[in-house]
Amino acid sequence: MIVTKGDDSKLSKQNISTTVSGDLIVTHLIGKIKTDDVNEWFKGFEKVCQQFISEGRKYKLLIDRKGYTPDHFSVQKAWKDKFFNENILNHSKAIAFLLEEGEIMNYLQQSNTKESVNFFDNYEQALIWLNEYPI
Fold first, then answer.
1. pLDDT > 90 in the chain, percent
2. Burial class of residue 8, CB neighbours in 10 A (0-12, 13-18, 19+)
3. Residue 121: strand, helix, or coil
């Protein structure tokens, strides 16, 4: 008897990149993610944010976690500890999270009290919202 644990073919290809376009920072943390991946992702993400901060500029963030699959529960804690950084968040004007559609996203949308934060399952909708958000 062969026992399989899930279907890895459905996992998103790993992407831990960060790019900039004008005042918009787009960062991706998708695929099967380990703690080392979070650390590597954060180095690039923080470097881009610090560039804006050092110039006294505000930015908008698109956090793409659609297809994010943590390897272990400690990965999510590592991400939260890195991302929820006062310096980075205080300099952001608006934050859009791109997540898988489902209960978690619905809960976050319903419980969110910040006008400058929004949750999406559609990349284009997230970009439109960010582009229309005043800086």
1. 70
2. exposed
3. coil
Q: Which tens digits make up the pLDDT trace of 61-115?
A: 999 999 888 898 899 999 999 999 899 999 999 999 999 888 888 888 899 889 9
**CB–CB of 30/67 below 8 Å?**
yes
What does DSSP say about strands 24-28 and 18-21: parallel, antiparallel, or unpaired?
A: antiparallel
CA dihedral of 37, 107, 24, 18, whole degrees rounded to 10: 10
Task: For the domain covering 10-132, report its CATH number.
Answer: 3.30.750
Q: Rounded to an integer, what distance in angstroms lies between the CA atom of residue 76 and that of residue 111?
A: 19
Distance CA 2, CA 22 (A): 52
**pLDDT for the residue numbered 99:** 93
**Segments making up each domain of the chain, as ranges:** 10-132
